[in-house]
Amino acid sequence: MNNKLLHTFSILLIAVIAFFTREIATVMMLYLILLALYGIHGTLQNFYKDWENKNNYPY
Q1: Which end of the chain is more exposed for a tag (fewer CB within 10 A), N or C?
Q2: Where do the H-state alpha helices sit in the chain?
Q3: DSSP state at residue 2
Q4: Rounded to two decimals, what is the model's pTM?
């Protein structure tokens, strides 16, 4: 699944949950945590790709 599509879907899901539960502040805080985890995940993927490319070259 495309990262932008997943991000948009999660925004819509969070908005629906916030509307029905009337807990907008709590749900938005959880969404900020989700955004931070997306960032960490992307960084770890980049580190792994760099590490993998570094270790595949012959010495």
Answers
A1: C
A2: 3-21, 24-56
A3: -
A4: 0.62
